[in-house]
Specification:
The chain is mainly beta. The chain has strands at 11-16, 26-27, 31-34, 38-40, 46-53, 59-70, 76-80, 84-87, 90-93, 98-105, 115-123, 137-147, 156-160, 167-174, 180-189, 192-203, 208-214, 222-230, 235-242. The chain folds into 2 domains: 11-147, Immunoglobulins (Immunoglobulin-like, Sandwich); 156-242, Immunoglobulin-like, CATH 2.60.40. It is elongated.
C-alpha cells in the first residue's frame, strides 16, 4: 500500500493491522491506538479514539485521513481527504500519557453504500543532531474507517482456478456495497481439508483478489466444497469442482 508522505526525507514504515482483532490495541512500538478498526453509521457525527504513549519520552503524533478504494484487481488506492478530521490533528503525548481524541465526519454519509477510509497516525520524528546524512524514521499505524448504512452488505463469490501441486487459487470478487474481509478459506472433500488459507484479506466493493490456499499434499481433481469465513464470524459454503 502506498502511503502519502509529506516530507521526502521521512521514511514511514506502515504497520497494516487488518489481521488484528478489532478490540485489541494497535501498537507501533512507541504508541498505541484503540480501537484498531473504526466503525461509524450515517448518524454518527464523531467517535472516540484513544492514543497512548508507550515510551518513556514525549512523542508527537500526526494524523492523515485518506479515502480508501481498490482497483478491480484489488490494488489499494489512498487519496488524502477532508471528509473526516481527527481533532486535534497533531497530538503531543508525555511519557506514558493517554489522550482521547475525536474522529469527526464532515460530509454527509451515503445512505446506499459504505464509505471506506484509512486513517494513518504517524510519529513525527525530531531532527537528529548527529553529523552526516540522517534520515529520521517514523513508525505509523494504518487503520480502516468504515461508515456503513444499514442497507450496505457484502456480496462475495469465489471461483477455483486450476490448482497446482500443493496450491489452489481462488478468484474472489465483491459485488456488494460493503467491504468483505476473508479471514479463512478451506477447501474440503468430505471431512478432509484439502487446502487452507488463514489471514485477513480486504476486498472492497467492485474489487476482486486472488486468494492462495495451500496444502501439504498434492491436490487431486474432483468434487469439493469451499468454506469461506469472514471477519464477523459468518461463513458461506459452496460446491465446486477441481479441474
Amino acid at each position: 500500500m502506498n502511503v502519502p508522505k509529506r516530507r521526502s526525507s521521512l521514511v514511514t514504515y506502515t504497520l497494516l493491522l487488518s489481521l488484528l482483532a478489532p478490540w485489541a490495541p494497535a501498537t507501533a512500538g512507541v504508541f498505541s491506538v484503540t480501537p484498531v478498526r473504526l466503525y461509524m453509521t450515517p448518524r454518527d457525527r464523531a467517535i472516540a479514539v484513544t492514543l497512548t504513549n508507550e515510551a518513556d519520552t514525549e512523542v508527537v503524533l500526526q494524523a492523515d485521513i485518506n479515502t480508501w478504494s481498490q482497483k478491480p484487481d484489488g490494488t489499494d488506492e489512498l487519496v488524502l481527504t477532508e471528509d473526516l478530521i481527527l481533532a486535534p490533528p497533531i497530538i503531543k503525548l508525555g511519557p506514558k500519557a493517554r489522550q482521547v481524541v475525536r474522529l469527526a465526519l464532515l460530509k454527509p454519509a451515503d445512505a446506499s453504500r459504505q464509505l471506506t477510509y484509512r486513517m494513518i497516525i504517524r510519529e513525527v520524528p525530531e531532527a537528529s543532531p548527529a553529523s552526516g546524512i540522517q534520515i529520521p524514521i517514523a513508525l505509523a499505524l494504518s487503520m480502516p474507517v468504515f461508515i456503513t448504512p444499514p442497507v450496505a452488505k457484502r456480496q462475495v463469490s469465489c471461483t477455483v482456478q486450476r490448482p497446482e501441486a500443493k496450491t489452489v487459487g481462488l478468484q474472489c470478487g465483491n459485488t456488494g456495497t460493503a467491504y468483505a474481509q476473508i479471514r479463512e478459506a478451506t477447501l474440503m472433500r468430505g471431512e478432509q481439508a484439502l487446502a487452507k488459507f488463514e489471514g485477513g484479506i480486504y476486498i472492497l466493493p467492485g474489487a476482486s483478489k486472488i486468494v492462495g490456499l495451500k496444502s501439504e499434499q498434492a491436490i487431486t481433481a474432483g468434487e469439493a466444497k469451499l468454506v469461506v469465513t469472514f471477519d464477523d464470524g459468518q461463513s458461506q459454503t459452496t460446491s465446486t469442482t477441481l479441474p
